[in-house]
Write a structure and sequence with these properties.
The structure is a homodimer of 219-residue chains. The first copy, chain A, is of the alpha/beta class and 219 residues long. Chain A folds into two domains: 2-82, Winged helix-like DNA-binding domain superfamily/Winged helix DNA-binding domain (Arc Repressor Mutant, subunit A); 88-193, 3-Layer(aba) Sandwich (Rossmann fold), CATH 3.40.50.720. Chain A contains nine helices and twelve strands. Chain A has helices at 12-30, 38-45, 49-57, 71-82, 97-104, 107-110, 141-144, 162-171, 198-211, and strands at residues 2-4, 9-10, 35-36, 69-70, 88-93, 113-120, 129-130, 133-137, 152-155, 176-179, 192-195, 216-217. In chain A, the strands form three sheets. Chain A has a seven-stranded mixed β-sheet with strand order 7-8-6-5-9-10-11. Chain A has a two-stranded antiparallel sheet with strand order 1-2. The first copy, chain A, has a two-stranded antiparallel ribbon with strand order 3-4. In chain A, a hairpin with a 2-residue loop joins β7 and β8 (133-137). In chain A, α1 crosses α4 (71-82) and α2 (38-45) crosses α3 (49-57). The radius of gyration of chain A is 21 Å and the shape is globular. Chain A starts with a strand and ends with a strand. At the A-B interface, β1, α1, α5, α6 and β10 of A face β1, α1, α5, α6 and β10 of B. β12 of chain A pairs parallel with β1 (2-4) of chain B, so a sheet runs across the interface. The first copy, chain A, binds a DNA duplex (30 and 30 nucleotides) through residues 11, 13-14, 37-39, 48, 50-51, 53-54, 56-57, 61, 63-69.
Chain lengths: 219, 219
DNA sequence: GATGCGCTGTGATTATATTCACAGTAACTC
DNA sequence: GAGTTACTGTGAATATAATCACAGCGCATC
């Protein structure tokens, strides 16, 4: 949990919502909107106005009391908060179907992340170039990584020896991992892990389909 | 929020953790483990033993007081809770890079979801077969969907006219949407939406890299 | 320059989630 | 069959998150 210098905590849930806010603020900016009131923005992201105001206030006050919040400036402030106001290099482990889809995905670049280097274990893929990036063998991780100054890695590889790969990444200076592999991995000291599990989301949706509207839940 | 017949609520956070539990329970089952204690399972998913016990207790008691929890039976119970003990058909909208990666992804099938039908807007793709599934034009949504009995859809398409597509899906009987498009969409009445936003997760990680360990947070 | 309006930021309150801690008990020992 | 151990399930306590509600203010209007 990060703290402001005044000692106020900023919760991770607030940080997650901040991504949402930024997303719709980008839309508003595209549409030429210069200022927005908390109740308008809150309506767009389906959050209560009070919560929005508290979230934004948690890292300083930005709202003009009669104009609302300045759209563009808020985008910049949130980007700075994330550290995505400048592009940062990330590494991709695994050039399978998902890995290659991520390489071609433009959303990362738009939000400040550049996949700079790719690793795989499949000899057939080594040396090939995917969307402008050459694929290296995972053996050469320690040798190649320093050239790119990456602090974050995306895991889209197979599940074999996953944890030892994570440990290795930690030793090689990786501080954060976005994990697409549906296995539980354990962060080494000081490392942060976020899991993306499509199926888990589907399971939640399937649960909601069954019990979400009917309030009685039978075993 | 679903309720048990006794009136106890089961929270969505509990449901999300249930996916984690099931994942590591599958691992244990593969390894031939028959029973597991709450503190062991809790350690594996990095959750407190008390929370694990409360989560599991929230839909009935299952633990044997001296053997712990029966691994296989718990997997079955959680599957039933999700409604994934039988395979269910889902629709995929968008056969771009991401959509095709999802078609080839085996994780869905393993967890009870079968992508049965694919739609796209790109004339070049209509009629082609991806991983055994023929791609239909999005125009034919209403005509084709009923053949497959799907209640869930995965959105992996472009952002244009996204909300009207969502409305259309709702009218065509889709009750849940897994949305990969990084735009905010609004569910119609009775519909559930889950968003998957890779970049948002990266933003959170990037934030943690900056402020996660150092507790002081400067504007 | 006085009045009114409607906004933000935030203390106080309520709701929700997590942890603590222990009663109750099955299995195992002697 | 009495004693010991170590577990589960759960009421009580705590911590965290969300909401309410309002003071205080900038701007518009007259």
């Amino acid at each position: 949990m990060a703290r402001e210098k005044s000692g106020k905590k900023i919760s991770l849930q607030t940080v997650e919502r901040m991504s949402l806010y930024r997303k719709v603020l980008e839309d508003l900016h595209r549409d030429g909107v210069a200022n927005v009131y908390s109740h308008q923005l809150a309506e767009l992201v389906r959050v209560s106005p009070a919560q929005l105001r508290r979230d934004l206030a948690s890292f300083g006050s930005f709202g003009n009391i009669s104009k609302g919040y300045p759209v563009y400036q808020l985008i910049l402030t949130i980007s700075r908060l994330f550290g995505t106001d400048t592009l940062q290099n990330v590494a991709l482990i695994g050039a399978g179907n998902l890995g290659r889809a991520l390489l071609f995905y433009r959303g990362f670049e738009e939000r400040g992340f550049h996949i700079a280097v790719v690793f795989d274990i499949d000899a057939e893929k080594i040396g090939r170039v995917f969307a402008g990036r050459r694929c290296h063998h995972i053996q050469d991780l320690e040798a190649v990584l320093p050239d790119f100054g990456v602090a974050m890695a995306i895991l889209a590889c197979g599940a074999q020896n996953l944890q030892s790969l994570v440990d290795r990444l930690g030793r090689a200076g990786i501080r954060s991992i976005l994990n697409f592999v549906p296995r539980q991995i354990h962060a080494v000291a000081g490392m942060n892990v976020e899991n993306v599990d499509f199926s888990a989301k589907m399971e939640k949706l399937s649960f909601l389909n069954r019990y979400g509207t009917a309030l009685e839940f039978e075993i």
